[in-house]
Amino acid sequence: MSQTSKTKDGPDLEILLQNNRNWAEQVRQEDPEFFPRLATQQKPKYLWIGCSDSRVPANQITGLVPGEVFVHRNVANVIGSDDPNCQSVIEYAVNALEVEHIIVCGHYKCGGVQAAMQGTATGIVADWIASISDIWNAQQPNLAALPAAERLAALCELNVQHQLKSLAQSPAVNEAWSQGRALSLHGWIYSIEDGLLKDLGLSLHDQAGVSALG
Ligand code: CO
């Protein structure tokens, strides 16, 4: 099939392919060496671990172009110690790409966090967000004291903190720190309502800082 032929899948997909051709052409015009340069290697400084939510695209909201950020996204930005998908991304980013910063980015109004709070998730998603349900159950007395409208936001922030701690315990991060390599972990949260990121002030630069995270 030629690049420009119509697919039987219709205009919903055709527009994506057309957008892609326009984008690639625009990039080539602005920087003819962009693609040849990227083709030789990737050397991103950052690993982003965020939610799959379509409203939180890592590159776009941070102004980064292809090649500048290694990305892992899943429902509710969960970092499971036994999740080979997430852990292999972390290992590769730290050991092979030698990223200097790992950003765990949650977002307010996260559907996964909300489902954990309300107990409405079913099937595989319920299993996936079990660690967030555990946070909710453990923190419920504190969170219940907040106005109802603030509870979800607070749990979204607590989830970032929890996942950041999980990240700090991952083998690749520990190995890097024990070797004295410069690697910082950061907890951020994104507001869909105004498009702004907030640093939660939880950054970790070595093993010593982890216990203070709570
Ligand atoms: Co989400």
| Low-pLDDT regions | none
Strand order of the largest sheet: 2-1-3-4-5
Distance between the ends: 56 Å
Number of strands: 5
Helix-strand topology string: HHEHEHEHHHHHEE
Percentage of helical residues? 40-55%
Query: Helix segment count?
Result: 9
Bound molecules: cobalt (II) ion
Briefly summarize what is shown.
With 214 residues, this protein is of the alpha/beta class. It is built from nine helices and five strands, in the order H-H-E-H-E-H-E-H-H-H-H-H-E-E. The chain has two domains: 30 residues, no CATH class; 171 residues, Carbonic anhydrase (Beta-carbonic Anhydrase, Chain A, 3-Layer(aba) Sandwich).
Can you describe this structure?
β4 and β5 form a beta hairpin. The protein starts with 10 loop residues before the first helix and ends in a 15-residue tail after the last strand. Strands 2-1-3-4-5 form a five-stranded mixed sheet. It is α/β, with parallel strands linked by helices and 214 residues long. It has two domains: 11-40, no CATH class; 43-213, 3-Layer(aba) Sandwich (Beta-carbonic Anhydrase, Chain A), CATH 3.40.1050. The chain has helices spanning 11-30, 34-40, 58-62, 84-96, 111-118, 123-128, 130-144, 148-168, 171-178; strands at 46-51, 69-74, 101-107, 184-191, 196-199. The longest helix is centred in the C-terminal third of the chain and has 21 residues, at 148-168. The chain binds cobalt (II) ion (CO). The site of cobalt (II) ion has 7 residues, from α5. Residues 51, 53, 76, 107, 110-112 line the site of cobalt (II) ion.
